[in-house]
């Protein structure tokens, strides 16, 4: 045998097995940036899923709360972090889709600065009204808005916010007009919809559910594409306005150049965690619907939502502030 053969053989023997290379990650704690305060949905998900992934991979996945600027502060930190797999983050539809459409200056690009890891959960919104209003379903609301231009008082959480875009989608599909009543806090909307100071709003179904069941607000319909298996008696807006759908989602993301192998590992472990009975039960109590899909699926959701809400913004002539 020639000398080159022995050189190649010795080099090959010096390398660790391929499996050892794959198992080297993570070799130290992983920081998970949460662009929200403790107790927010992203924070709850990070701590819940992080614990399960940590148990499997042997390293802590630690939440680092960085609230501020509608989530832009935290997302900027994720985008600027080294793509070595040791800094990832939690994103959601509001700060990854709506914020870039609503603001002229955003310190990150949703598609070029991030690598989707896993779309974790989604929720749906509800169209609710004060019980005293003269309409009982979506068809009646649309007819009332058409017959009374500018009289139907709709509360939102501000110009260019997700609820505002959701109401605008409803308006353009229904062909009616309304009086826009913007609020700084969603909690104030809840108070005023129950007191009758405003007629209607679109808000998180799970947060409104206690007031719906107590009769303090009336549910007209939910924003799912189809009826909820858990709440089959609640009609959808799409049953009156075909194609209408709205809701939020939350998922884990990484800096754009994180390796595909690391992303694949985290995607698999997060999907596994989502299927655990205790995790599924906890998320169900929060009104969240579980997803266990690929990173590519998450990318497609981002593209779909950008197209959808971008069209709404253009149709209403919204100018980023």
Spans of at least 5 consecutive residues whose pLDDT stays below 50 are: 4-22
- The rounded distance between the terminal residues' Cα atoms is 73 Å
N to C succession of SSEs: HHEHEHEHEEHEHEHEHEEHHEH
How many strands, which pairing sense, and closed or not: the largest β-sheet? 6 strands, mixed
Q: CATH superfamily of the largest domain, called what?
A: Bordetella uptake gene, domain 1
Helix content: 40-55%
Classify the fold: give the CATH topology of the largest domain: D-Maltodextrin-Binding Protein, domain 2
Shape: globular
What does this molecule look like?
With 321 residues, this protein is of the alpha/beta class. The chain has two domains: 30-122 and 248-315, D-Maltodextrin-Binding Protein, domain 2, CATH 3.40.190.150; 125-239, Periplasmic binding protein-like II (D-Maltodextrin-Binding Protein, domain 2, 3-Layer(aba) Sandwich). 44% of the residues lie in helices and 18% in strands. It is globular, with a radius of gyration of 23 Å. It starts with a helix and ends in a 6-residue tail after the last helix.
